Amino acid sequence: MPLININQLTDDLVRDTAGPTRPRPPAHPGPAPQLPGDPVRALAARTAVRQWTARPLHGDVLLRALHYAHEQDAHLWHPDHPDTPAPTAAVLVRNVTGIRPGYYHYEPRRPALLPQPQSLPDLQDLVLQLEFADAAAVVLVLGDLAAALTRDGAAGHRQLLSRGAAHAHAAWLAALSQGAAGTVFAGILSSAGRTELGIDGFHRAQLLGLALGVPPTAPDGPKEDSR
Q1: What is the 3-state secondary structure (H, E, C) of the chain?
Q2: Confidence (pTM)
Q3: pLDDT value at residue 81
């Protein structure tokens, strides 16, 4: 039995951030997505980590975390907001097995990381706190602010921020459940995102960031799920 009913908390958040005429969202059909790893491990490791070993993060751990976040968004948000684009994930890969260093966008329909034409900048030029430049991968949760404002005005902006936060935390918990470590943080510098990665802040607005890697306390690093 879960200690926290994440689905109910998110339902309440959707209700509270909706516009004044929006009715309470109906119950979501179907079972909620399951964490790709051990939920007890995720709860036990739920602390911000800003230091990692030099060992690479397993590529499957990263992809499963991104897939879980996408599934959670589809389950909790899309039924009540089908006209609002879902958050997307841009990924800065520095040290991940099976994936070359570079700048990628996560494509959930494949699922896969699609390389982008921009080259990967030095992460130290993108972040305010330099420890995040040592992460094996940095996930940037992006949202279509223009569409959210057109649909719901100021309430759409608040809801987009809440949805982006839920997306980032879902990916974080999924990574923790597989033995990875990291933390949700504000993300990269807005000016660097615009000039280096083409994140314009309106049609593609940065909502939150997630830094991931192999924790120093894991002697063998995250294991690939055998299921």
Answers
A1: CCCCCHHHHHHHHHHHHCCCCCCCCCCCCCCCCCCCCCHHHHHHCCCCCCCCCCCCEEHHHHHHHHHHHHHHHHHHCHHHCCCCCCCEEEEEECCEECECCEEEEEECCCCEEEECCCCCCCHHHCCCCHHHHHCCEEEEEEECHHHHHHHHCHHHHHHHHHHHHHHHHHHHHHHHCCCCEEEEECCCCHHHHHHHHCCCCCCCEEEEEEEEECCCCCCCCCCCCCC
A2: 0.84
A3: 81
Structure token digits, residue 164? 């982006």
pLDDT at 26 over 70: no
* Cβ-contact 194, 168 below 8 angstroms: no
Amino acid present at 24: R
pLDDT band at 56 (very low <50, low <70, confident <90, very high): very high
pLDDT in tens, 143-154: 999 999 998 899
- pLDDT at res. 3: 47
Pairing of strands 96-97, 57-58: parallel
Q: Looking at the predicted structure, is the pLDDT value of residue 37 above 90?
A: yes
Phi/psi region, residue 198 (left: phi>0; alpha: psi -120 to 50; beta: rest), is left
